[in-house]
């Protein structure tokens, strides 16, 4: 009997899909490792108990939001400020979800909730590379799930390492290890720049993010993202309109 959520009928094929997702995200896991260690290290020197830091990784599972929340907590910010700031930072996940939605819309709700909880920047990059070459609705959740679970466990492991050993290396966060995450994001973005409209969107967002970085609550980042999306959409619409205008001309020849 075939599982309606996946074209492959056997459990073994599902496990292979999970393993493939976990394998393909390994480079991203390597880049996230120093980031997780630094987060755990910062928890040891902050106002939170160690178990608070691990609980944050278990429940929130969003590196940038966790770092920002940790800084705000150390600065005695109110819950409303912490909540609003992390919400703004994570709004980019709405764009990720909109991109992947056609490929997961056919899945049962339990799968969509599970995959949404596991969605991160790295998982999105790997899942989208897998889905973009396939027709929407033809691929099950197992590849996505395997990549997400692998990244989730990786984040927990390195958070624990930072919590346990961070106190022994108090200057760890000043060694520049966080550049590994920058390199990871570069590896995520660059392979996607396969057309002029993508390059224009990336340049617009990157430039505005640089000039707007002083805006409060990371609103400059959010504004830069929306500006980049707007540029990409406008160029995509122009491309479609140009293609549509060419067809009648070609038909009359």
Automatic annotation (TrEMBL):
InterPro entries hit by this protein: Brnchd-chn_aa_trnsp_permease (IPR011606)
Subcellular location field: Cell membrane
Transmembrane regions listed in the UniProt entry: 25-43, 143-167, 179-199, 219-237
Presence of keyword Membrane: yes
Record's keyword terms, sorted: Cell membrane, Membrane, Transmembrane, Transmembrane helix, Transport
Membrane topology: Multi-pass membrane protein
Recorded coiled-coil stretches: none
Family classification: Belongs to the AzlC family.
Designated name of the protein: AzlC family ABC transporter permease
Protein source organism: Paraburkholderia youngii
């Amino acid at each position: 009997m075939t599982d309606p959520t996946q074209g492959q009928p056997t459990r073994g094929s599902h496990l292979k899909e999970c393993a493939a997702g976990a394998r393909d995200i390994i480079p991203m896991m390597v880049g996230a490792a120093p980031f997780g260690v630094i987060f755990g290290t910062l928890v040891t020197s902050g106002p939170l108990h160690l178990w608070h830091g691990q609980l944050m990784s278990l429940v929130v599972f969003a590196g940038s939001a966790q770092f920002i929340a940790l800084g705000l907590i150390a600065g005695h910010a109110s819950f409303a400020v912490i909540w609003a700031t992390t919400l703004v930072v994570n709004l980019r996940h709405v764009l990720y979800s909109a991109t992947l939605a056609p490929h997961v819309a056919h899945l049962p709700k339990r799968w969509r909730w599970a995959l949404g909880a596991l969605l991160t920047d790295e998982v999105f990059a790997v899942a989208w590379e897998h889905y973009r070459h396939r027709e929407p609705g033809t691929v099950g959740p197992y590849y996505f799930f395997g990549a997400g679970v692998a990244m989730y466990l990786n984040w927990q492991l390195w958070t624990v390492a930072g919590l346990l050993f961070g106190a022994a290396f108090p200057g760890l966060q000043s060694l520049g290890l966080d550049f590994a995450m920058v390199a990871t994001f570069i590896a995520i973005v660059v392979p996607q720049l396969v057309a002029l409209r993508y390059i224009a969107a990336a340049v617009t967002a990157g430039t505005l993010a640089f000039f707007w970085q002083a805006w409060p609550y990371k609103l400059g980042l959010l504004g830069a993202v929306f500006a980049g999306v707007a540029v990409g959409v406008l160029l995509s619409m122009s491309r479609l309109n140009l293609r549509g205008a060419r067809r009648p001309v070609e038909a009359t020849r």
